[in-house]
Amino acid sequence: MFKYALKRILTFIPMLIAISLLSFVISINAPGDPVERLSKAAGSEGSAEQQSGASKKIKQELRKKLGLDLPIFYLSVTDLAASDTLYKVQDKYHKANLEALTHQSGNWGAVSEYYSNLLALQKAHQIIDAKEIVSNDTSLSLNTVNEAANQFGFEIGSLLETSDKTLVPLKFEKMNGLLQNHVFLSNLKAPLFNVKQSREDLFTNSTRWKTYIPTISWYGGKNQYHLWLLGNGNERKGILRGDFGISYIDSQPIQSKIWQKVGISFSLSIISIFLAYLISIPIGIYSAYKKDSAADKGMSLVLFVLYSMPSFFVATLLLLQFANPDNLSWFPVSGIQDPTIFDPNWSLWMKLKHRMPFLILPIITYTYGSFAFLSRIMRVGMIDVVSQDYIRTARAKGLGEGKVILKHALRNSLLPVITVFAAIFPMAIGGSIIIEVIFSIPGMGVEVLNSILNYDYPMIITVFTLSGFLTMVGYLVADLLYAVVDPRISYK
């Protein structure tokens, strides 16, 4: 069995690599710009000019920290026209536009020149000072200058993000119209002319044939995936060493946010799973032993009713009945504390004593549906086993009914519920969003909900990755338990 477990653990390696690769692909293709999100979370103080400079510095630091200034993977399979340095472009929408233009023209050099001229035009536009223009020409209003400048800036932004051959000429036409109608924009004529000229060069000097010739670019270990998986040996450790990146909400490391919350959700789930199995197995055995009796039918009715009741309804009912001053105020309504604010001098018993009143109702809510479902599975498995020939042989030998059921039938009937465990176990990492929200439990369920609402993709992907890992662990444990409960199963 040890050799089998070792082999299975070794197979985890390619599976984990596959999970990590899938998670990485999802993360890099998630909507929005992570640098923009994180820079907003970081914020800055001071004047508008100071804020702009601080924002640019923050973005540069974040891009370097996230590895976005590196190529995506160890290698890339592209065409001869494509650039092997396109990954250095910061804005993902600019990058997509440049890729499309390169595909249209097949001339990366001309595309790069066009992009440089666009950035120069944007820079010239950004230094326009509306207040200074109005002070030099009193016939102009501040609103007029700002409106014209904003319109021109909008068109520049559109050019940076679009490669549509029908749309681009319209953009140039609008900008020419603004230059003709507003003399104060005259300093933009020369850079706009350069942009238009470089745009024409894209297609007059086209080398489209290069787009049909494939090529491979090798980047080595300095790439985003390698950094994400293994880290760089400095501030980044990689997911294999528990570094899951930075939260988009508050710029805090994911690992520092997740472990305490995972502990709460995981503890609740494990306790509820243990109680569910502890209750369901005897009930399933008894129902199978008393098959079609009044007790079996009554128990089946109760279990079906329990299983059909939604968890949010049961949770609300428990709160109204047992945490309500108008009824039975036995338990607190909410207020479970994050473990990080516990008194560091408290013993484990003090922590449990403080936490337990808050957990009883959530554990009941977690457990009732599981044990109802598992009881039905246990009953069906036991009924199938007791009809086997070896059970009839055991009875024919004169063995007592209790010994036949508990010693000969039980172990083989456990196989279905062990299989269910393999599917239940991975769900423990994510917690229950509904239950944790209702009972105000600061666990992973609430954290996942907040992550979804705030587009915190690193947290979502972390939960996805950990769930994949726990799925493999769950099936390994199930396989080993098969051999423990059924002597017919052996692993070599």
Itemize the secondary structure elements and their pairings:
Elements: H1 2-28, H2 34-42, H3 48-66, E1 75-79, H4 92-105, H5 108-126, H6 130-136, H7 142-161, H8 167-181, H9 189-204, E2 214-218, H10 224-230, H11 254-289, H12 294-308, H13 311-322, H14 348-386, H15 389-396, H16 401-413, H17 415-424, H18 433-438, H19 444-453, H20 457-485
Antiparallel strand pairs: 1-2
What is the rounded distance between the termini?
A: 6 Å
How much strand?
under 5%
Spatial strand arrangement across the major sheet? 1-2
- The total number of structural domains is 2
How does CATH name the architecture of the largest domain?
Answer: Orthogonal Bundle
Q: Encode the helix/strand succession as letters.
A: HHHEHHHHHHEHHHHHHHHHHH
Q: What is the CATH level 1 assignment of the largest domain?
A: Mainly Alpha
- Helicity, in percent? 55-70%
Largest β sheet strand count, sense and barrel closure = 2 strands, antiparallel
**Number of alpha- plus pi-helical segments:** 20
CATH topology of the largest domain: MetI-like fold
The Cα radius of gyration reads: 32 Å
